[in-house]
Amino acid sequence: EVLRYPGDQCVVPLAVAMGNHDAGGYQWAGASAYATQSARAAHSAFYSKYYPQSSVAVTPTPSEDAHANDWTSTLNTRVIGGVLGWTTLDTGHVFALDAGQARYMRASLTYMRDTARVPAIVLYHVPSYPSVRQSDASSKKVDSAAVRQVFGPLLDEFDDVVTLVFENHDHAYKRTHRIRGEAVVPVTGAGGR
């Protein structure tokens, strides 16, 4: 009801991904209450209520972690209008950035390529290559190296279906050509122009 246009009551279309503020990330530093993923999941009740995710195309493969009993709270795969696929992932805010999530991503992108035959957009929070901080900087809050390690090989493998990736954490605009195999080419000034 909150996310409807007042005039015609149509639902406002939103594509959201769990972020650090949604899971208590702003309180992580030195706060043992948010040290476990199950604690962050409990803290993210607002996100889960207002942005429920449902994976209508792919049945998630749960991680080996005991807390991963409902992946649809932060993971989502859907095909929109038969012309576009959308996959939302979790960069470690509630669910681990691990092999279980890589299996989910692989299943989602395989479905879009082989069954739905649609181009895919991938959405997640922590950037693999940040635009306003060092790309190898990692902490308990943000780990871009882990994002590259888990999602990078799959983005390379499925480059025939993934046409766009949205990363959100740094609150800064970034646009780049496709980066394959962690090959980064630094550009300074006008980039030779």
UniProtKB/TrEMBL annotation:
GO-annotated molecular function: acid phosphatase activity
Signal sequence bounds: none
Classification via InterPro entries: Metallo-depent_PP-like, PAPs-like
Keyword field contains Signal: yes
Source organism superkingdom: Eukaryota
The UniProt record lists the keyword Ribosomal protein: no
Keyword list, A-Z: Signal
Name by which UniProt lists this protein: Calcineurin-like phosphoesterase domain-containing protein
